Amino acid sequence: MILCGALAACGGAPQPRPAAVAGAAPAPLVTTRLEVPAGSGGFDASILLPEPGRPDAEVARVGDLVLRESHGFRSMLAADPKIALSAIDLVVFDALVARHATEFGITVDAAAVRAQAAREEAEFEQQVRTELGPKVTLADYVWRVQGMRIEEWRRIAELRAARRAYHGLVIRYLALREDRAQVRCIAHRDKALLEGLAQQVREGADFATLAARNAEDGVRDGGLLPTFDRAFPHPAARVAFDLQPGQLALTSAGEGEDQRHFLVFCLQRIAGRPVPFAEVRAEIEADLAARPLAPVETNAYTLRWRAESERQP
User: Fold this and answer.
1) Is 212 helix (H, G, I), strand (E, B) or coil?
2) CA distances from 237 to 127, 173, 191, 240 (A)
3) Domains and CATH numbers, the chain
4) Cα 29 from chain centroid?
5) Is-above-0.85 flag for pTM?
6) For an engineered disulfide with 132, which of 9, 96, 136, 189 has Cβ 3.0 to 4.6 Å away?
């Protein structure tokens, strides 16, 4: 249960809804303990990596029986291998981000991280007070429900905010360095239907409207995809870099009953800028503030760089 909660926290998920807080009670049979990561209190890229030499920490006790982190992972692996592998994917993802942050001199602003964590704390505290009443303080809730002192909880909240900041800065910076394209896309099993839609666009129809009406899997923002580079794991990337703004292309993926077709409309082509991070930091931070990192971006980053790492000798 502790590790599953960590998955949500690593992904920047909202805090869980406040649960009922019990009154004074005898010492419980089961106690839990979350260990705050060690460190200097700063936010260098090492916060994304496992602590070297860290022991297998105690996370819970049932009576006199000590349960450790490795026990939690092995139980999770036996109960649901998919969730266990997702936890490993998070570790790999953070290690990749840390490697790129170190390589390109990317750091997070400590003051901005603490300010973000403070805003999230204030929002959560208000939620606790609204749902549980003014007599329940955040410190009381955190101790009784999560088994942590407020100082430990705040440190973890800051680390979570710092990790999200590193994710955004690294992924957007690496994207900025490479040639990119932005397109709208309609996916469908009926190739003839897409060919007809392409002709409508050539005659002046609005692609976004056609996407909203005809995309087989449903779309947002008129089939708009985030800007991507040539390694983007989507069929649209196969043809996007052969198009100029306003041009269309049809491509396919899969075979037999699984085959799908994609009508791609190019919105813009963006030349890569392999400049030092310091020169574009403010630009990237403003971009992230206006357009937070999307799951499709993190997935594309993971697929590309994990594959490249596995190809290295």
Assistant:
1) helix
2) 43, 19, 18, 5
3) 2-175 (no CATH), 179-311 (3.10.50.40)
4) 36
5) no
6) 136
